[in-house]
Amino acid sequence: MAVTSDTYTPATRSISFPKVQTRHVVMVLYLLFMLVPIYWLVKMSFQTNREILGGFTLWPQNPTLDNYRVILTDSSWYMGYVNSITYVVMNTVLSLAVALPAAYAFSRYRFLGDKHLFFWLLTNRMAPPAVFALPFFQLYSSVGLFDTHIAVALAHTLFNVPLAVWILEGFMRGVPKEIDETAYIDGYSFPRFFVKIFMPLIASGIGVAAFFCFMFSWVELLLSRTLTAVNAQPIASIMTRTVSASGLDWGVLCAAGVLTIIPGALVIYFVRNYIAKGFALGRV
Amino acid sequence: MDKVQNNKAWFLVLPVLVLVAFSAVIPLMTVVNYSVQDTFGNNVFFWEGLGWFQEVLTSERVHAALGRQLAFSGIILAIQIPLGIAIAICMPKRGFWASVCLVLMALPLLIPWNVVGTIWQILGRTDIGLVGYALDKVGISWNYARNPVHAWVTVVIMDVWHWTSLVALLAYAGLQSIPQAYYQAAKIDQASRWKVFRYIELPKMQGVLLIAILLRFMDSFMIYTEPFVVTGGGPGSATSFLSIDLVKMALGQFDLGPAAAFSIMYFLVILLVSWVFYTVMTNLDKAEGR
Fold first, then answer.
1. In this prediction, does ipTM exceed 0.95?
2. Per-residue DSSP letter, B8
3. A266 and A143 share a domain?
4. Considering CB atoms only, which of A31, A118, A243 is closest to B101?
5. Which is it for strands A109-110 and B4-5: parallel, antiparallel or unpaired?
6. Once rounded to an integer, what is the mean pLDDT over residues B206-212?
7. With the CA atoms of B252, B255, B256 and B258 taken in that order, what torsion angle do they form, in degrees rounded to the nearest 10?
8. How far is CA A282 from each of CA A163, A206, A264, B284, rounded to the nearest angstrom?
9. How far apart are CA B144 and CA B125, in angstroms?
10. Do the domain assignments include residue B14?
């Protein structure tokens, strides 16, 4: 991505001044639109349920950490995070492990059916989880994997493996082939070359692919909810089940929501220049 | 880059093939299986032929869901694409503020979908939500749980909030790749801002914009979690989009046959759009000489 381009400045100065102002106003309004809903969630997470329902306020009158305390001490809540993180990490490791060699093959070689295979992978990234919910439920029940972390991790490979292959392939194409050839001349075997020389070269690509696998598995609800009951229930599903219960504690629900945003918010700064690339499957 | 012909590369692809075959082909075959059979329970199945497909194709419920889905996808594309381009043009081009904008804009993209639903479910409430309360104060009694129009507006605004940044970030990436020389040439020609946009920026963004349109179409076409959390598909079935309707049919009523036939037709649409997407991608790669 070129960073050399400069702001376009119109010919005369008298026009340029108000234009700059408009862009700033638009940007500020848009960022407000982005942030106000998140602020509202954070605000409510610091209020007791009585304060939330007692009267309308723009900020917490008596900020409290009680909601977070409830979540972090009640195992039916915090186990949701443990379960989510368990299957998300399993899925990320699994997806990357199989996607790395495949992406290398797609970026370096032509082989029988390569284009069809690459396209077929894309169709799986695009497939609606709703179509797969019922067959997955039956498949994993019949092999005795229902309500286990590995079932959700495997189910999420449906869209994460294609995603990882496409993203990694996009990064690997940027590495000149001469590097591979030089390594072979120097007597490197393929596995040694791949791990020692090639993987460090595409380290940022692996990071981006891992981030997107993590993210897409983390945000998904339908499959993880369908495939779990008690033992592997993810936090997302615990939250939706609470919604339907009567006597809902809004404060705790909001605190749970805020905690689910944190993993993304922590790493977002490091991947900021790759977000578009990741969402566009390594293209752009 | 010139690629070498080597069929041994299949060994590198094999793990992916096995894994995705397990998580995609087996379930898909189950669906195909159900779509042509009927059952009276006890795992006894008999051949039904194309009956389910006929039933689904003529079902008013499915037609209505498809209509709602197309309307929804159309509306959000019509809002998100122009808005996304406008935001990308307004973004700072580099430096500290560019990073700040990138990070803040990307936040909604990384929030779990059910939490997005929860956020808007709360915001739209007149007792505890900012938006609902404000609307109530100006005299509109906002109720997305009862009023279909309010439900639609809520779901559409939620999606605009959630995904416009993706379009903006893609368009921004496209803008960043335009060489400075183009702008200088336009300056010498004294081109207006509009002309710069129309004849330099828009053509140069064409590729990324197509990707953005396809991605947004696909993801809105299979939207499930967000409207499910906010409205549950209601009021009535006003916001039951294809996925919500399908899950109701398959997991709620356990109507295996129709649900499977529905799934297959749903999947065919996906296949078609994926093919367009793939063609766009390959042409784009070729144009960039990669």
1. no
2. G
3. yes
4. A31
5. parallel
6. 88
7. -120
8. 8, 11, 19, 12
9. 8
10. no
| Strands of chain A, DSSP E | 109-110
List Cβ neighbours of B271 (8 Å cut-off, separation of 6 or more): A123
Tokens 């008013």, residue located: B60
- Give the rounded distance of the alpha carbon of B58 from its chain centre: 26
B11: its two tokens? 């060994």
Taking contacts as CB-CB distances below 8 angstroms, the residues of chain B near A157 are 19-20, 23
Q: Is the pLDDT of residue A39 over 90?
A: yes
Range of the domain at B152: 61-242+270-287
Q: Which domain holds residue A25?
A: 13-45
Q: What is the pTM for the complete model shown?
A: 0.86
Question: Among B18, B128, B216, which would you mutate to test the A interface (most chain A Cβ atoms within 10 Å of its Cβ)?
Answer: B128
Residue of A nearest to B4 (CA): A109
Coil, helix or strand for B135?
helix
CATH number, domain at B279? Answer: 1.10.3720.10
B219's CB contacts (< 8 A; 6+ apart) are B163
Digit-coded pLDDT (tens) for A203-213: 989 999 999 99
Cβ distance A240 to B229 less than 8 Å, yes or no, reads yes
Dump pLDDT digits (tens) for B132-174.
889 888 888 888 888 999 999 999 999 999 999 999 999 999 9
Residues A172 and A230 in one domain: yes
Average pLDDT value for chain A: 86
